[in-house]
Amino acid sequence: MPFASLGLSQELAHAVAEKGYQSPSPIQAQAIPAILEGRDVMAAAQTGTGKTAGFTLPMLQNLMQGRRARSNRARALVLTPTRELAAQVAESVEAYGKNLPLNSVVVFGGVSINPQLQALRRGADVLVATPGRLLDLYGQNAVRFDDLELLVLDEADRMLDMGFIRDIRKILALLPAKRQNLLFSATFSGEIRDLARGLLSQPVEVDVSPRNSTARTVSQRLHPVDKSAKPKVVSRLIRDNNWQQVLIFTRTKHGANRLAQKLERDGIQAAAIHGNKSQGARTRALAGFKDGSVQALVATDIAARGLDIQQLPQVVNFDLPQVAEDYVHRIGRTGRAGAEGQAISLVCEEEFKLLNDIEQLIQTHLERVPLSDFEPKLPLPDSKPLRPLKAKKPKKPKSRSGDGQSAPAKAADKPQARRDHDKSHGEGHNRPKPQRRRRPGRSDQAERGQSSGQGRRRAPQRG
Ligand code: ADP
Ligand code: MG
Prior knowledge:
The protein is of the alpha/beta class. Helices cover 33% and strands 15% of the residues. β3 (103-107), α5 (114-121) and β4 form a beta-alpha-beta unit.
């Protein structure tokens, strides 16, 4: 099915063709016509299924109908949880909108606010923003929403995970009541549905992925190893398989640094990406990884979240994630949009419980492949039989509506406080911050900025 048959204009169909997409992904095929009709849409599809184009293409087409943005006004607002995602969405808006006379502006924290103030002065047909910086800008009268036609919450499940609900509510209160609303998420949890109920009006619901399933094009296996052997094993795997681009997940920032250093010592081009790295270091690491000069990128979960690295062939879980759902997100980095990928987990005996959580969540036993040189001294127990997943009952039936949609691994997990990662605090940003623990293993991973494109983006025709 060609893109044009969804009702997209020539300009957009051309831009999509230039990106090399042959046909719409399932989420795109379902969401695009509904958005073009002006309906509110609530869409869930797993990571890597093309949600960005799913809302960006019809959004741009709808915006072509109205008057161009006035000074310090936004006509469409796309909220994303992290700076990386904001930058990526903005890039997509620019790429798909290259043949259209629409401006886009992207704003996020951790970088100087002045260029953003300037960019907004000329108005934004599309404003892509992280919540904290948007509120700062609003507070400085840099943006007003009286002309707002369309709101997109991208990666809505992440936003809630990261504790943005209060900021989102504050922002919603600033928007005109009459507008089109789009909510995109990897999953529909009970919380997402709660949010959607207050936000969307008679939404078209699109759910194209079985909940918590992992991408089918990703082959998954595990190597049972001792904890102490893991760095050596990674190094060996990279060399033996001649992996040119591998994303490696560690549980802590410290662990990411140590592993990257070890790989470097072994002659493998490696870089770590996590919240303690300076913005420049993060940008360089990511750029190097994309252009092939960095062979191994070692990342913590939050740092890696949402990074769109095209057709990443190889993901390694150096540590298993503390929260089983993160396993699904991690391996969603590979095999994106139908490309083949391989996910390998190094699992030691101490991680057996985490492994069981993952296997129960994805309802699959990971294939075990012993490495002859690295037989563990502490053997990994046999996997437990798979129990069918039950939707967890909400803890407080009174405050929850109890629609039974809660994601199994963390139904009771409530963000206690918003992580402070989106506040503007200059470029150095290594100030101490209070520890806020909500998930095990996450406390050292508050996100810090990385940016390339802040400020104004502009379609060529307009200049
Ligand atoms: P999601 O937001 O669902 O995680 P993205 O929007 O980031 O996914 O898209 C993932 C990748 O798939 C991107 O590299 C994007 O360019 C690519 N992609 C999107 N739509 C298509 C399509 N119709 N055909 C081929 N590739 C696509
Ligand atoms: Mg996305």
